[in-house]
């Protein structure tokens, strides 16, 4: 008995309709990457393990898919190491490559390797799949695409402003109104930890703070206490739990809280510049807000932190994010090259557009015209007509065999074809063809000598 086919958990097959819809998102994002001056690059689907390992923290390392060495990979493992049955110790002996976990670290590697060929600041975009050995769930997959835009070689805050504009422009064209772009700064988080006396517990403090909207103020305080943060420090941080008002009001409150932290004050100044510049330029449809609890990417972000939330009422995690990193290329030996970048979460954006019914009408229509097949001579005439239509950019096809007409019409209906052409013996003798509108049933006759009349009617 044949084995029932299956695919790995966390991966997907895509139907023609889904591919067309995904390509629609790709095309919108790519076009605006280009209008903002970003250049495309691509990197291999797998990298040397040493390029990826140790760059994402312990959790990230566990989620990297390792590739077994070709040939007899166990041959290089000595008996003593093999007898330990310790996968962590044996991995380096049997696997030298791994599937890329994201596009950022490979990009840093690319910049270092090609630094003498690049013009800085270098604005790059990259749209490619990545792989993570994560637990699959709604909106989270083991194989998915990332759409990244980064600028390296400039520490100007105008780059942050442009990336916010890029988000706003893309989501406006996708008609995704009500998107919220959240903004924070790593220096502010470091400054807060400093003034409350928890500088050495920065990660624990910010990870707990990041959960404020999920577990509430009491839950955050409880977690901070469990991580060794004192009640005195938590009390000093109390204003953060109820930071309200306009963006300007929140920045003023942070200014007061961080008056004794040079780093924290610098973070507030950076956010204020970005906010004031955006206000002067205006936004199309997105909303920009300060969110001091935002703490993503603490392992390498050093300045601004971005996260994009779907419109209210849509149950979905972030649909984009990014931030400023002052020395990401330093992990590969190129020091002091500042960069900033953002990513679009294609798969989640797809789910949001689907839920809100925002894809263009008939986007998945793969055929505009289908010529029915009435036989050998008629079929050849229909093929000639189909060829003419295709040369004019019309999505046209001919049914491949002279099957029963009801079967051919059923095929047209299943393919959602708006126009069906009938070119039978009578039409061939009259040098004409009949076009049937499949929506209203109307039929109209055109001359084979003047197909342009039909083309102009589409």
What does this structure look like?
The two termini are about 50 Å apart. The protein has about 450 residues and is α+β, with helices and mostly antiparallel strands. It has helices spanning about 15-35, 50, 55-60, 80-85, 85-95, 105-115, 160-175, 185-195, 200-210, 210-225, 230-235, 245-255, 260-280, 345-355, 375-390, 405-415, 425-430, 450-455; strands at about 40, 45-50, 65, 95-100, 120-130, 145-150, 180-185, 285-290, 305-310, 320-325, 340-345, 370, 395-400, 420, 430-435, 445. It holds the Pfam family tRNA-synt_His. GO terms for molecular function: histidine-tRNA ligase activity. Homodimer. It is found in: Cytoplasm.
């Amino acid at each position: 008995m044949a084995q029932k086919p299956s695919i790995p958990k966390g991966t997907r097959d895509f139907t023609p309709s889904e591919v067309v819809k995904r390509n629609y998102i790709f095309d919108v994002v790519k076009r605006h990457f280009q209008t903002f001056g970003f250049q495309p690059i691509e990197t291999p689907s797998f990298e040397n393990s040493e390029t990826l390992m140790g760059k994402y923290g312990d959790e990230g390392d566990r989620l990297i898919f390792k590739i077994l060495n070709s040939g007899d990979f166990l041959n290089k493992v000595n008996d003593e190491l093999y007898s330990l049955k310790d996968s962590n110790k044996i991995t380096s002996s049997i696997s030298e490559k791994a599937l890329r976990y994201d596009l950022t670290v490979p990009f840093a590697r690319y910049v270092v390797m090609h630094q003498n060929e690049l013009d800085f600041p270098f604005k790059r975009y990259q749209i490619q799949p990545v792989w993570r050995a994560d637990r699959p769930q709604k909106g989270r997959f083991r194989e998915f695409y990332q759409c990244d835009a980064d600028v390296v070689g400039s520490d100007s805050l105008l780059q942050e402003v442009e990336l916010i504009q890029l988000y706003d422009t893309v989501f406006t064209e996708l008609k995704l109104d009500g998107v919220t772009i959240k903004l924070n700064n790593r220096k502010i988080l470091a400054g807060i930890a400093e003034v409350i006396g928890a500088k050495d517990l920065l990660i624990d403090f910010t990870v707990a703070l990041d959960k404020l909207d999920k577990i509430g103020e009491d839950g955050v305080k409880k977690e901070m206490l469990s991580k060794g943060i004192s009640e005195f420090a938590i009390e000093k941080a109390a204003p953060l739990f109820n930071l309200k008002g306009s963006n300007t009001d929140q920045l003023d409150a942070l200014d007061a809280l961080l008056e004794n932290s040079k780093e924290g004050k610098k973070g507030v100044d950076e956010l204020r510049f970005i906010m004031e510049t955006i206000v002067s330029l205006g936004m199309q449809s997105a909303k920009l807000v300060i969110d001091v609890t935002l703490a993503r990417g603490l392992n390498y972000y050093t300045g601004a932190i971005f996260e994009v939330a779907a419109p209210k009422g849509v149950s979905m995690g972030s649909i984009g994010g990014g931030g400023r990193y002052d020395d990401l290329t330093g992990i590969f030996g190129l020091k002091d090259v500042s960069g900033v970048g953002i990513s679009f979460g294609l798969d989640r954006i797809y789910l949001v557009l689907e839920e809100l019914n925002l894809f263009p009408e008939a986007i998945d229509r793969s055929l505009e015209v289908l010529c029915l097949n009435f036989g050998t001579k008629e079929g050849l005439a229909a093929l000639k007509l189909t060829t003419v239509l295709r040369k004019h950019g019309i999505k046209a096809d001919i049914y491949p065999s002279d099957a029963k007409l009801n079967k051919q019409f059923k095929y047209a209906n299943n393919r959602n074809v708006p126009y069906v052409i009938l070119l039978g013996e009578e039409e061939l003798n009259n040098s004409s063809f009949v076009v049937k509108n499949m929506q209203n049933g109307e039929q109209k006759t055109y001359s084979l000598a003047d197909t342009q009349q039909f083309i102009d009617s589409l």
